[in-house]
Amino acid sequence: MNHPEKTDRRIRRTRTLLTNALILLLKTKSFHDITVKELCETADINRGTFYLHYDDIYDMMGQLEIEIVTRFEEVLALHSPEELGSDPNDLLYDLFVFIEEGADLCQALLGQYGDISFLMKLKAIFHDRFWNVWLHTFQESDRSRYEYTYNFIVSGCIGLIETWLSSGHRESPKEMAALAGSIISSGIRSLL
Amino acid sequence: MNHPEKTDRRIRRTRTLLTNALILLLKTKSFHDITVKELCETADINRGTFYLHYDDIYDMMGQLEIEIVTRFEEVLALHSPEELGSDPNDLLYDLFVFIEEGADLCQALLGQYGDISFLMKLKAIFHDRFWNVWLHTFQESDRSRYEYTYNFIVSGCIGLIETWLSSGHRESPKEMAALAGSIISSGIRSLL
DNA sequence: AAATAAATCAACACGATGTTTAAAAATGAG
DNA sequence: CTCATTTTTAAACATCGTGTTGATTTATTT
C-alpha cells in the first residue's frame, strides 16, 4: 500500500494503523469531523507521533488521495485515450481491478462521508486525458452538447463505482467492465 | 427563501445574512472548514446571535439542505413516477427551473466544496420515488444490471446539473431539460 | 553491540466553541 | 406614537482540540 520496502518498519506500521483507523472512522463521519485526537486513540498511536508524519488531518487525507490518484493515472497511462472510444473494455477492466484492490479506501472517499474534492480530482483527470481527444471525434457545431454528455458519462461512471463498492462489490471487475462498457457505448452512440 | 412572511423581520434578516455569508464562504472552502467565528464576521452578525438560531454550523447546513430537499420533493410530487419513463421533459423542466432559482446554494452544495451527503440525499429521494416503479418495467432476471444503469443515470444527471451550474448556467432550463431528457432516453433505450 | 531513528509522554500557549449574563436596539400591536 | 415584547449585542467564561517542544524510552538497521 505505502512506500513498499524502503522505509523503516515502524513508519509503515504507524502509517498503516493511522490509515486503517481513518478508514474505520470514515464509515461513521466525514473526515472533516474526525479529530486528530480520536484518530490517534482509534489507531492507538501517540498523538505526537501523528505530527511526525502529517501536518494535520487534511495533509493526511491529501497524501492518501495523491497515492490513489497517482496509481490511478498509472493505470490510465497503460492505455491510449483513443481506446476508450473504440474498445474501452480493457481499460475499464484494469480500472475496476485497481479500484477493487483499494476498495476500502476508495469506498471511504467516494461514499457517504467521502470527500467531494477527491471526486472532482478524479473527474479532472479523466477530463484532461480524454476530453481533448474526444473533442475531435465530433463536429465543432454542437460542442456544449458533447461536453454535457461527456460529463454525464463520467459522473455516471463514478456513481456506478460507488454503487458497486457500497453494495459489497459482489460483481467481478470483469463483469463491471462489461457493464460499464455497454452503458458508455450506448451513451456515445446516442451522440452520433 | 425562508419562512416567508410570518417571522420577525430581524430573524429573517439575520438568517439571510448568515446564509449569504455561508454561500460566499463555500466558494473558497468546504463548510466543514468554516468556523462560526468567521461566518459571523463575514455576515457581520454577533457570534452569540448565531447560537440563537442554530446549534452549530452543521445544524445550519442541515436546515438549509432540508429546505432545498423539501422543495425538491414538492416539485417531484407534481409529477407521477411513470412520467419519467415515458415523457420526462415536463418533470425535468420543472426541476431545472427549481435548481436555477436556488442556483447559488445548489452550486455551493454540489460544487467543489460541497457536501457529499447532500448529494446522497438527492440520490436517495430519486431512488425512493422512481426505483420501485421502474423495477416493474423490466424483467426480473437481470435486476442488478438495471440497478446499476439506474444509478448511472441518476449520478449522471447530478453531474449534468453540476456542470451546468459551475459553467454559469448559460443554457435555459428548457434547453437543459431537453438535453437531459434525450440522454436519459438513450440510456433507457439501451436497457431494452 | 552500537548507532541511529522513531515513538512516547508530559507540558505548553493558542484559538474556536458553546454558554451565560445584562444592556441596547428593533419590532409590531394597539 | 407608545409601550411591551422580542431580538441582537457585548463581554466574560470554562472547555476542548490543536500543533509544538524537549526529554526519555523503545525499536530498527547495519
Structure description:
The structure is a homodimer of 192-residue chains. Chain A is 73% helix and 0% strand. Chain A is mainly α. Chain A folds into two domains: 9-53, Arc Repressor Mutant, subunit A; 68-189. In chain A, helix 4 (57-77) runs antiparallel to helix 6 (89-101) and helix 7 (103-110) crosses helix 9. The radius of gyration of chain A is 19 Å and the shape is elongated. The N and C termini of chain A lie far apart (42 Å). The model of chain A has no long low-confidence stretch (mean pLDDT 89). Chains A and B meet through helix 8, helix 9 and helix 10 of A and helix 8, helix 9 and helix 10 of B. Chain A binds a DNA duplex (30 and 30 nucleotides) through helix 1 and helix 3.
Number of helices of chain A: 10
Assembly state (oligomeric) = homodimer
Q: What is the domain tally of chain A?
A: 2
Helix content of chain A: over 70%
Q: Which structural class fits the helix and strand makeup of chain A? A: mainly alpha
Number of strands of chain A: 0
The biggest sheet of chain A amounts to: none
Question: What's the rounded overall pLDDT mean of chain A?
Answer: 89
C-alpha termini separation of chain A: 42 Å
Which band does the percent of strand residues of chain A land in?
A: under 5%
pLDDT < 50 runs, ≥5 residues of chain A: none
Task: Give the overall form of chain A.
Answer: elongated
What is the radius of gyration of chain A? 19 Å
Helix and strand element order of chain A: HHHHHHHHHH
Largest interface: A-B, 38 and 38 residues
